[in-house]
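Archive entry. Fields below.
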Amino acid sequence: MYSRAYKAAVALPPLFWVALFLLLPYSLLFAHSFWSVASGAIVRQWSLHNYAELAHNWMYAQVLFRSMKIAGAVTLLALLLGYPLAYYLSFCAGPQKQLLYQLVIVPLWVSYLVRGYAWKTILGSDGVLNGFLQYLGIVSTPVEFFLYSPFAVVLTLTHIYTPFTFLPLFASLEHIPRHLVEASQDLGASPRVTFWRVIFPLSLPGLLAGATFAFVLTLGDFLAPLLVGGPSGIMISNVVVSLFGAAYDWPLGAAISVCMLLLVVGILFAIERLEKRWSFH
Amino acid sequence: MAPLLNIRSIAKRFGARHVLHDISLDVNPGEFLTVLGESGSGKTTLLRVIAGFEQPDAGEIWMAGERLDTLPPYRRRVNTVFQHYALFPHLSVFENVAYGLRVQGVAKSEVGSRVEKALGMVKMDSYVASAPSTLSGGQQQRVALARALVNRPRLLLLDEPLSALDANLRRQMQGELKTLQREVGIAFLFVTHDQDEAMALSDRIALLRAGALEQVASPREIYSRPATAYTAQFIGQANLLRAEIANGVARWGALAWPCDAAVGPADFSLRPEHIRFTAAPPADDSHTVCFCASIVRQIFCGATDLLEITCQSGHRLRARVPSRGVLEGEYRFEFSAADAVRLREGGER
Amino acid sequence: MKRAALILLLALAVAAMTSCSKQKAVTLSLLVWEGYADPSFVRVFEETHQCKVVASYMGSSDELVAKLRGGSASNYDVISPSSDVATTIAGSGLAAPLEMSRIPSYPQLSQKLRELPLVRINGKIYGVPFMWGPNPLLYDTSALSRPPESWSIFWDKKYRGKISVWDDLSTIYMAAQMLGFDKPDPGALYNLTDEQLEQVRKKLLELKPNVRKMWATGGELTNLFQNHEVVAAMGWPLMTNQLRKLNYPIGETIPRENTTGWMDHLMVTAASEHKELAHAFLEYMIQAKTQKLLADVTGYVPANPGAAALMTTDEKKSLHLDDPDAYMARIYFWQDVPRRNKYNEVWNAVKAAQ
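PREDICTED_STRUCTURE:
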């Protein structure tokens, strides 16, 4: 048994950490969202007018909706890429599994910015892709929608977040007992039927976790629209950045942040409930 | 009667390790055949080769006139009960049992009645809606059995299905399994490392040793006429007597009995229970071997005592006799010459 | 002998340590427009004052104000606010009043610029005039053989996806000029009514299909030209200079509608811990020879007319120093925008629109 003093001593540092780096910032954010700004100074008067502004000016809803659309597209693509990859590694790779796993993980160590700029070089009018297409004679003038477009944003974010969907998917596939796959085949199910009736349902928790990563991370992204996005491609975080930065309207920025926080917490909550329902081990 | 399953010279290697050597074995329709062996003897691999989870390196497997080893597992009319049940955790008991019928496109109306019947057979019909994780080990085993049997396979493979159960439940399940097998009339190929289980359940036992078949026979025959020293010792207990044969007589120390084998050394197996006390002086009957021996150790086993005795020549034997109190000193024993079973040469590998 | 060696060793060690501590120089931090911290003139200052100059670049006037207000004022010693926010910064206590005795070159600066009321509050001076220039129209001479006469080419369907504009309120001013809101009073650009702003918003929405990318930094716009992503943009003379050095076929012009421009001041932040060094930096930066070097790098017009004496006739001509008044007449200098938040809101709405 540990003494009460010992328990307190052990519990204190994490509590302190949580208070300092989580509770305090969130409280500040929350408080700011009810304040306002007048002639360049923040006025600490409580009101709901920031939220009223968000409800009234539907530009914010529009940008949020666009961000969610992009996040949805990235999530879908990251899953479509990440799932077959994870499946192949888990079920078919054999002795190369470890090596391939490392190869998938390695891009995570490369800076986000480097990857963003890499796509710029590839997709630009003078870029590798357009050069190649022109060399092949498939197009005569550079294809412009490759860069500075929603396409480029979705592509870049998919590239960046696919490892994030791959990891939980791979973990959940690795956790499926192989004798269940054999049992299914033994009962007369072809590999395709086995996949849909056994492997896929059992990988759902990993799928959900991966989808959550991709969706939530994309929803909060502001660098990709800045680097490769077009003039109409700003996402909700760009609005927050500009409110905190250029416009010095911290209260309105905080109000949007609080809304996004609630949205994300809501998503996580729903996902956790689903995950519990779909978890069998 | 034509065999249901016909295994022809199957061999299997994992890397440099030979797991199965030249296995040939038939399974007859409706038969309960047990593949018995120590762990690492290759019995599970043999089962997996039949089910289709492993490809043999050599040999063929035929079932009812159809070549089996070239088919993928899901095309073989064989079902398996796995050691750790392998129930699908995301499906209810009903759906687990219905799985095979559904993937084979059996009509919905038929699925319900067949699943219920199968679950009734294993007395699990009141658990249809349960999740596998809420069931005990024995219940899961029953569901696994129903899931396999509901497909009406011609052959059921059982991979140590009872090994994860505790002793009491295990005995109970053994009895039920045997009854069930009789009822459904499906051939069972049962894998176990437990010789008592094999003896209790099987019509025939195939004893596997280091990837090769040592002996295939009915439990009674394999017990009473073990072919090798390994069989004799693996199934029940046995005294191994290394005798010398000359002039139609086998001699082991001071003991001698008639034997018409060729001159030279020969191994015999003598079960302890075939040695008994005798009061009578040695009769002039060459078919009964009489000798005096002193008791070295007495182990009480309930209805019987296991005695370790030393003959006057110094040779040691074990004898099993009905319990009758503490025994000390020298006694007179005898056994029938016919009970000394001559073993095959080259038993050691 | 042994003892002598030991003493020598000790002496060397002490010498090494003191030289180390000397090398740990003071760092002067700048938050300025791109081009204002070029090594060609900053290095001399670092050497003569035994310090290190570290520069961060601002992407817009709003960013400067937000950074100072947001609590990072203490991270910077010297800032270079433009005419639109100079008064706000001077009046909000973010900048320190200057000790003019430490800036002996101040009287050399153009009298007209010194007399502007922008940075004088309660008799105190908060900034020194530094450089000024326009937001000209830059164009790729390989794509446009003649200088465009009007900003309206930005709306020309021919240049769909080939235009870049600054992610800044300057683009709002430009659109307002296109709509003629600068007539008769150019100052009206900085005091647009809601109705006018609504028209500006619509005008800019029409521009969007032609915009490939809105640039946020000078480096980004030079890249956009170099990678042939755009053929025309609103930019700074700095980029023209940089692209010419790279032998890129770039042209610069002020269209007939005229353009907006800026007058930058140098200020010392109120929170600076190196005010003495910062004053020395201001003095150095407005000296005629430094201003000449600055003009070489940026292509902006120096506030110290003495710099002209160090230039060739061609250099003077390209900076319009031969007739500065006529040049200045085509530039509407940025002014304080009283409703800056409203302008920003309109600009955000333009960016957010599909």
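CURATOR_NOTE: DSSP finds eight helices and 20 strands in chain B.
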